[in-house]
Amino acid sequence: MRRNSRILLLFGIIWFSGVYLYVRNSENTSGVFNAESNPRHGNRISKDAPAKHHKKDHKQKIKLVEDHNLDADKLEHDIQDIEHGLEDLKDSNDDEFAAIEDSIRHDLADDDDKDYADMEALSEEDKDDENDAAKKESKAKAEPTGDSKINKEIAEEKTIQDKDELDKGENDEDYEDDGKVDWWNFDDSAYLAAGALGADEDPYEANKFNQAASDRIKSDRAVPDTRHKECSKQKYQVEQLPDTTVIITYHNEAHSTLLRTVISVLHRSPPNLIKEIILVDDFSKNPNIGPPLTKIKKVKAIRNPKREGLIRSRVRGAAIATGKVLTFLDSHVEANEGWLEPLLGRIHESRTAVVSPIIDVIGMDDFHYVGASADLKGGFNWDLVFKWDYMSEQERRERRRAPTSPIRTPMIAGGLFSIDKNWFHELGEYDMDMDVWGGENLEISFRVWQCHGTLEIIPCSRVGHVFRKKHPYTFPGGSGNVFAKNTRRAAEVWMDEYKEFYFAAVPSAKMVKFGDISKRTEVRERLQCKSFSWFLENVYPELRIPNKDAIGWGAVSQTNKGLEECIGNTHGGGTLGMYRCHGDGGNQEFTLTKEGKEFRHNDLCIGYNAKEPVGNPVKFNTCHQMSHQRWEYFSSQIKPEGHTNLCLDSKNHLEKGLTLEVCNHSKTQVFSFEMRNIK
User: From CA 617, how far away is CA 650, in angstroms rounded?
Assistant: First the structure.
């Protein structure tokens, strides 16, 4: 019993001494400056701390030293008491307390030495002040706090700990980061070396962009802030926003672009909003592209056992995601300043909003970062190929009045967007019977709009993307067939009778096997989705509706010397010429009617000189159903009815406009309608 009391007394003294030392140390280090939160890069997130006055009163310093000496005497007395207690315990032959003795002496001595070291540093600083006041004042401007080297190290250590706590976030209590490092401590040189180009390797071969240029760029490089100036004034209650899982799929991606994607997301996002980053390797040749990045906190990696494509890979990543929002990114992007908060803020306002950033351009040759126009939105033609549409003048005026407001878009590019996780699952995720890549953005865009959601571009969110001229990977069955199958599935499920316009634009699509769509039609029925005519009327009224029962409709194009040009009328009447195709209809939209065989543009019809047709230009006139306004279309040639030996020709269009010439099968007599045989 007596022995137990002694043990309790001993540890009570140890506890009291530890608390006392902690309090004294806190007093001595109060006001220590907060070092930058990123010890690797000096220009990272900084925390402001009140500056300490460097010129201290000498008497106060003497008083501080005297107080410290008094404290040291008290500590020495405590140590002696503890030593006496240890001797008594030794007398009781308790060998197990030998280790405790060494530990106590070591800990107390370390604390006391640190305390003395702080005071010596303060004394040395005071001498420097007396010897060179001007130098001291200059140093104060460079280092606002002016504390000792040891105190500075303590402050840096504390700031790093604070950064770690911030990275973890409120919702990350169960997140296991054992053995992981912050992104700025990741050994990027070793990772990049593992994916470096060979001595004679073509830098464009593997990824269809200049990998040599990419490899030379820092993993955390600065990019220009391309947002509107009003965006920086937007304030978000970050603690109220939902967190997100970032899902990045890749196939044979370059190490440098994937690393820069991951680093930019972590570097330019509030830490508590990033729940995790999931890297999905779609069966790359090298299985070690993603796994090394899991050494970075919050990064996970999974690998497909066979090639699945972007669509199924994203669904697999979403299946294990724990964040409230899913953010899908390509593997060669760079997040810009403040990119995430506007996306999550909009979803916080409306959970059925599917939001995309403005996609800036990263050059495939030199990786130069260029801001994209904020006056664009996503669209498509009847061939169901994505394109960028310029906003109407009215929309641009509204944008100027409210430059930070969301932009309603009929379609998203598909590579980069955020969506509420539960809403993603309710909507039916992706069509899992689509292959590889292509058409999935079309399908999800139709589905979001027709099933009571909204699709928006958030102008204050900017993400750069490396745009390439070619795909670096192969498509099983060929890219054309894969895209045709995927778009045919989307058309069959969502476009109702308007799918006939798609078949008119892409006749070969009728021959494509598209598989079973019953699961997707069940999604449409379950969600009670709206018709495609509603979509055209309320979401995309700009899409031109073809004239039914037409032999040909839309732009009438011709390829000559490698350039695609379209028949156009720039004067509202008169002669016709060939101009660069713009794809917006208007002065380049024509219809060859099936019933009257009229070659029409709005209320005007193309006619020819009936008396001397050869060599003379064709002209616009008021439609009157006369014979010299009737045309036929045979084997890509436009001919006057009853004159099978004459063809419309563009060879003299610069001098005369389009003329009628004797048919000779030259390229200047070959024309293609945007859509054929519309029913």
Answer: 10
